[in-house]
Amino acid sequence: MCLQTFQRQAHLEQLGSGLAHQPAVLVEVEMTEGSVPRKAGTWMAVFQNTLVGTVGGGHIEHQAIALARKLLVTDSKTEPLTRRFALGPSLGQCCGGVMHLKFEVVSASDTPELTQRLQLQMQPVALFGGGHVGHALVRVLSSLPFTLTWIDSRDGVFPTDLPGSVVCEQSDPVQSAVKDVAPFSAVLIMSFSHAEDLEVLAACLLRQRATADLPYIGLIGSKTKWATFRSRLQTRGFTLHELAHVTSPIGVAGIKGKEPEVIAIAVTAQLLQRLGPA
C-alpha cells in the first residue's frame, strides 16, 4: 500500500473538532492529469473562516476555496460536485497538468465516516518495542500519514497521552501479535531483547511467505546483529531470497547519530522513500 497523502494526522483531528461546531466543504483531489502540485486523495476542509489542509496552494486553491464557501451559504446539503482545473496561464500556474476537485458539504454527523475514509489513505505501521527509540518513532510518525499499532510484551510501557492514530497492544508472547497486524503494514522490530526480536522477525517472515502483505520489515541493530540473526534464520529454513526482504540496519544511510530522535528521523525517512509518498 503506497502513501496516498501527505497531510498530518492532526488535520483529521482538526476536521472533527471543527465539524462539531459548524459545517465545512471537503475538497478532495479526485483525479489528476500530468504535472500537478498534489496527487489524488489529497484533501482540505474549507470552513467559513478557516481551513484545514491544502490541495496545492496558489490560484487553484484560491478558486477552490471561493467555490467551497459559496456552497457553504446554502441552507441544506448539496450533492457532491466535481470541477476541472487546468493549471495553465489562466490560473497563473505553469504546472501544465489538470486537477479534478470534488466538493462535498459535510457536517458533524459525517465525522465517523470521514475519519474512516480518509484514514484508509494512510500507511499502517506495526511497531514492536516500547523503548526509547520506539517512543521517539511514535512522536515522529504520528505527525505524518501513518497509522500505528504499537506492540510490546510488557505491561505499562506505553504513555497515556497518545494521538488517535496510535493503538497500543500488550502481547505476550509478543510474536503472537504478528498474525493480527493490518495487511500491507510496514513492520519495525526493536523490542527490549534480541530473543524477542528474533521471534517477531521469524513470525513476520512466515507471514510474508504465506501472504506477501508486509512490504517493509525492518530490524533495528548493527550489521553484526543482522549477520547473527540471518544465520539463525537460515537454520530454521528461511531462504536467502526471503531474508533479503529484511532491512537491517534500519534508517537511511549517512546519518551517524545514535540518539533515539536521530534514529527515528532516519527510519521515518526510509519509510517515506520505500513506501511513498504519492
Question: What this model shows, in words?
Answer:
The chain has 278 residues and is α/β, with parallel strands linked by helices. The chain folds into 2 domains: 110 residues, no CATH class; 153 residues, 3-Layer(aba) Sandwich (Rossmann fold), CATH 3.40.50. It is 35% helix and 22% strand. It has 8 helices and 11 strands. α1 runs antiparallel to α3 and α4 packs across α8. The radius of gyration is 22 Å and the shape is elongated. The N terminus is likely disordered.
Task: Write a concise synopsis of the structure shown.
The protein has helices at 9-19, 58-72, 111-119, 132-141, 194-211, 223-235, 240-243, 260-275; strands at residues 24-33, 43-46, 51-53, 81-86, 98-106, 123-128, 146-152, 166-170, 186-189, 216-219, 246-247.
Instruction: Report the end-to-end length measured between terminal Cα atoms.
Output: 11 Å
Q: Helix amount, in percent?
A: 25-40%
Q: Quote the beta fraction.
A: 15-25%
- SSE arrangement, N to C: HEEEHEEHEHEEEHEHHEH
> Describe the biggest sheet?
6 strands, parallel
Q: What is the CATH architecture descriptor of the largest domain?
A: 3-Layer(aba) Sandwich
* Major sheet: arrangement of strands: 8-7-6-9-10-11
Say what the CATH topology of the largest domain is. Rossmann fold
Structural class by sheet pairing and helices:
alpha/beta
Question: Class of the largest domain, according to the CATH hierarchy?
Answer: Alpha Beta
Task: Average the pLDDT over all residues and give the rounded result.
Answer: 87
Specify the overall morphology: elongated
Question: Which consecutive residue ranges, at least 5 long each, have pLDDT under 50?
Answer: 1-8
Number of strands: 11
Domains counted in the coordinates: how many?
Answer: 2
- Contiguous helical run count: 8
Rg over alpha carbons: 22 Å
Instruction: Write the CATH homologous superfamily of the largest domain.
Output: NAD(P)-binding Rossmann-like Domain
